[in-house]
Amino acid sequence: xxxxxxxxxxxxxxxxxxxxxxxxxxxxxxxxxxxxxxxxxxxxxxxxxxxxxxxxxxxxxxxxxxxxxxxxxxxxxxxxxxxxxxxxxxxxxxxxxxxxxxxxxxxxxxxxxxxxxxxxxxxxxxxxxxxxxxxxxxxxxxxxxxxxxxxxxxxxxxxxxxxxxxxxxxxxxxxxxxxxxxxxxxxxxxxxxxxxxxxxxxxxxxxxxxxxxxxxxxxxxxxxxxxxxxxxxxxxxxxxxxxxxxxxxxxxxxxxxxxxxxxxxxxxxxxxxxxxxxxxxxx
Length: 283
Prior knowledge:
Distance between the termini: 5 Å
Keywords: Isomerase
Organism: Shivajiella indica
Protein name: Sugar phosphate isomerase/epimerase family protein
CATH architecture: Alpha-Beta Barrel
Strand content: 5-15%
Number of domains: 1
InterPro entries: IolE/XylAMocC-like, Xyl_isomerase-like_sf, Xyl_isomerase-like_TIM-brl
GO molecular function, one term: isomerase activity
Structural class: alpha/beta
């Protein structure tokens, strides 16, 4: 069975000891790991939480984003340089946590648009830096998995076809694709076809309902999804990412204006869904 993770953004984007009781309960439910957002400036907290995860036997993955001032596809070289430096900082903090995978839409700045369709030069700019940080992340023992987002949050990579195009330009063994069923629910014609398209280049997978609530409570086609994952022999993480308004600043930044589900409902019932689907489809 693939390892199962839960993203603690359902409670908080901050890195602090307040997460410890949450991590304890995730471990008790049966989760193999927790996923953390890397953004909090308190560098010591990353090592502290990383040490705690090791103590209780939880593995770690991480996620992050870039601001418009750090956009890898900006025509301004100084902005791209800031993006390079920020990703290295994110990798360092992920290493402090003991992360195995760093996912997220850091191929470009989050919710930053040019009022035009993506240009080939933008893929080339992003790929150049992602190749560089692929080397940097290899030394830290972290797999990089840039993510395709929906059209309201990104324009460079909305689909696996676009993300695959970018990966072809990156051309680095330590840079693979991330798939999120919430975004794919909006952008892909068929989730199974998209999973099969990216195939062996898939490095990380987010289990996310269409409304970001409890997996299994909406209309994401889970049987189709898990059947395709089994078909491509996917061996990576299956990590639930659901959002709430528990952290208002984070919720406001991503347009979460209502409570979709309670975090522990997501965690308990989402875990059951993944185990059932995994057993059914042979993952």
